[in-house]
Design brief:
Layout (H helix, E strand, L loop, with lengths): L7 H4 L7 H4 L12 H13 L13 H12 L9 H10 E6 L2 E6 L12 H11 L5 H9 L7 H10 L1 H5 L6 H16 L3 H29 L4 H17 L9 H12 L12 H8 L13 H58 L8 H6 L1 H25 L1
Antiparallel strand pairs: 1-2
Helix pairs in contact: 3-8, 6-7, 7-8, 12-14, 12-15, 13-15, 15-17
Protein name: Integrase zinc-binding domain-containing protein
């Protein structure tokens, strides 16, 4: 809500313009922008703001006087409303220079530029920097004053006649070339759109080719012999791409050789089609429209049989590995049994060998029963030792 107005007699002694005390410039009318044009720009700037911000977007001289009245009489609650007094104390302070009271911005401590002085200050600083543009003009103003909107400075520089005259003019041929290049850019799609269109065209072409192939197959269907030979050729070609599992011992190598010998070898490539050569060897000549296999047909058949072939190959590899493990286990058992048999034979040989003792020759001949008992005990000891050895292995 806008504050109430005070009488001119009350405010004339309490507030004066900050411009009249600075002495930076003499107010004048500048040729590059008239005051009427600047006032039109100010009205346009205020009209495009929200309705709640229009009253305080620019600090007028009357509003500055009201702010000074609140600041100089802080204990007087009868003037204005509490909301306005709170807003003034939050954003402004004042300073006294002699007998003058100057309204200052509380954030940066700079004098407030009122609306009635905007034209003089903006034109002056824009002139002394040599029409340097929006950023330089705004920087020069904000070094000395506060509450000058940057959007208003931008509108001012865009309508400055001197700045408009300094803008470069392009020749006609450059303008036409730039416009033609702009049209080319508008016509040319983005790289992502190009890739998408190319992908769609490729899909349409493949779909058309597939329809043509289906139409040809309906007119000239393949015979049962062609289909069976084609499936055999694809199976052999796919199986040959997977190498066998390498062997770990001599027995495993023999097993790998026997297993791999059962896998069909790939057909040798020649200048003519393998399917055609096989059909001719059987005395069958295919239809001339599908004499050679199309790459797309072969790819479709390969994709259809790929899953089954992979499962079959995995099953063969698992069988080969299981057989290899069984052979290794049997070989280990044979070695253990051979070692046990060797130790047992050696023990029996030493047990059955006649003792060569010249001193007790007569006693040995007379004690056959004792010898047999000794041999039986030694056999039992050997058998128990062999059992312990087998358990340890």
């Amino acid at each position: 809500m806008a504050p109430s107005s005070l009488s001119a007699s009350t405010t004339s002694t309490s507030c004066v313009s900050a411009t009249s005390t600075t002495g930076l410039y003499l107010p004048q009318t500048y040729s590059f922008l008239t005051p009427e044009t600047f006032e039109t720009l100010v009205e346009g700037y205020i009209s495009q703001l929200h309705i709640r911000k229009r009253n305080k977007a620019l600090i007028s001289q009357q509003l500055a006087n009201d702010c000074l009245m609140v600041l100089t009489n802080p204990e007087n609650t009868a003037i204005f409303n509490p909301k306005f007094r709170w807003w003034v104390r939050k954003h402004f302070v004042f300073t006294v220079v002699g007998e003058l009271r100057i309204l200052m911005d509380k954030k940066n401590g700079k004098p407030v530029c009122v609306r009635e002085q905007l034209y003089d200050k903006v034109c002056y600083f824009h002139h002394i920097i040599g029409h340097g543009g929006r950023d330089k003009t705004f920087a020069a103003i904000t070094k000395s004053y506060s509450k000058v909107p940057a959007e208003l400075v931008s509108l001012f520089t865009k309508n400055c006649q001197t700045c408009l005259g300094h803008q470069p003019t392009y020749p006609a041929h450059e303008t036409s070339s730039s416009s033609s290049s702009q049209l080319d850019q508008d016509e040319d799609p983005s790289p992502l759109l190009n890739s998408t269109q190319m992908f769609q065209k490729q899909i349409q072409q493949e779909h058309y080719q597939y329809q043509q192939q289906q139409h040809q197959q309906q007119q000239h269907p393949r015979s049962f012999l062609e289909e069976s030979l084609l499936a055999t050729h694809l199976t052999a070609s796919t199986s040959s791409a997977h190498s066998a599992v390498p062997s770990m011992s001599h027995c495993a190598e023999m097993c790998s050789a026997e297993t791999l010998s059962s896998i069909p070898t790939p057909m040798s490539c020649s200048s003519s089609s393998p399917l055609t050569s096989m059909l001719e060897s059987h005395g069958h000549h295919p239809h001339p429209n599908h004499h050679d296999l199309d790459q797309s047909d072969a790819a479709d058949l390969d994709l259809d049989q790929n899953h089954g072939l992979q499962q079959q190959q995995q099953h063969q590899q698992q069988q080969h590995q299981q057989h290899h493990q069984d052979l290794m286990a049997m070989e280990q058992q044979y070695r253990e049994l051979a070692a046990v048999s060797k130790h047992e034979l050696q023990g029996l040989h030493h047990a059955l060998q006649p003792r060569q003792d010249d001193d007790d020759d007569d006693e040995a001949e007379g004690d056959d029963n004792n010898k047999e008992e000794t041999i039986s005990m030694e056999k039992c000891q050997l058998i128990s030792a062999v059992a312990d050895l087998v358990a340890q292995i």
